[in-house]
Amino acid sequence: MSQQDDPLGGFDTRAVRAGQHRTNEQEQSEALFLSSSFTFRNAAEAAARFSGEEDGNIYSRFTNPTVRTFEERLAALEGGATCVATASGMSAILATCMSLLRSGDHVVCARQVFGTTVSLFGKILPRFGVQSSFVSLTDYEGWQQAITPRTRMLFLETPSNPLTDVADIRYLADLAHARDCLLVVDNCFCTPALQRPLALGADLVIHSATKYLDGQGRCVGGAVVGPQDLVGEEVFGFLRTAGPTMSAFNAWVFIKGLETLRLRMRAHCENAMEVALWLSEQPRVTRVHYPGLPDHPHHALARRQQDGYGGIVSFEVAGGREAAWGVIDATSLVSITANLGDAKTTITHPATTTHGRITEEERARAGVGEGLIRLSVGLEDPVDIQRDLARALAEGANHRGV
Ligand SMILES: *Cc1c(COP(=O)(O)O)cnc(C)c1O
């Protein structure tokens, strides 16, 4: 069924309407249920709820109406059957692995994923008997060769962080299914406003809601979207027992974030394109990574697979760490912070922050050099972002010898 034929309507209608269940108060905006537990009319009703005979809320580690609104809305935007919200993006990945993998299973993960995800697959899961192999995101032969009879899951992000490499989701979904594996896509950088991995064959979508779904840098949260058996049963079953669930307050913030998601993503894409083109012309910038640039190695694929090129732009300066730090320190408008997907432009030195805890060898293989700077282009006037970066490139050069 196409979105247009669906009673939920098109993407923009879903973003503001899906998942709302008005109470008798007839509130216009979604209600915030700040309640850790829910009451029963009598002991028999309590027993029926606990036994599962009767549907309904019991306790907010299991279900909460505000969290459910967020889950229904995000599922509607991703085109998934169901969604489970989590306390953070990392707990969404952890819950997926803990519920769908067993000791002895094997994962193939893209080398270019979020640094903490590399640590989870490389250091924590092996203690529980789950081994992982890392392959370069766009080395399709590498993916094929890394799959063993024990492999259960392929895991990737596209575009990648921080270099914005783009992988062919349809190809990797077909590969995963031919080898009896699940394809899990972390859709943090694009959000469903720009890319819907489930429609391209992925089995599960992961979100760090902390980023663009919030969009204004307020709350930490995450989500898993996919079919009822895997997400509604397995992932939900793990979460309600293990506990890293989303708070109702955070869910309410994310619900309101989803209402403006597509508008914001369009503006992030426009601003990022302007900044990327401008950076390409700066003599002190040796390389710009942005899928919207025609010379990006995966520009054609990004154009086909995505509805926009996203808000993340990375660039390189000569002179290594000292030069990159000099440029970052000389900015005044943009914020020096590791978060991304905010209305405010943020600037990061990946090699010593987000990718600082992986080994130097892993970093080099992921292409994260000391001269690399990541921008999450925000919603300010792009000329002001450019003016700040122009001064930073000039001053950083004077003080640090770029
Ligand atoms: C931030 C991020 C995560 C982790 O999310 P948290 O909400 O910080 O736990 C996972 N994947 C990507 C791509 C991210 O950018």
Describe this structure in words.
With 402 residues, the chain is an alpha/beta fold. 40% of the residues lie in helices and 14% in strands. The chain has helices at residues 11-17, 43-51, 65-78, 89-100, 115-124, 140-146, 169-178, 191-194, 228-242, 248-259, 261-280, 299-305, 320-329, 360-365, 382-400, and strands at 82-86, 106-110, 131-135, 151-157, 182-186, 204-208, 222-226, 285-289, 312-317, 335-336, 346-348, 372-376. The strands form two sheets. A seven-stranded mixed beta sheet has the order 1-7-6-5-4-2-3, with helices on both faces. A five-stranded mixed beta sheet has the order 8-9-12-11-10. Helix 1 (11-17) packs antiparallel against helix 10 (248-259). The mean pLDDT is 94. Pyridoxal-5'-phosphate binds next to helix 4. Residues 88-90, 114, 117, 157, 161, 186, 188, 208, 210-211, 220, 222 line the site of pyridoxal-5'-phosphate.
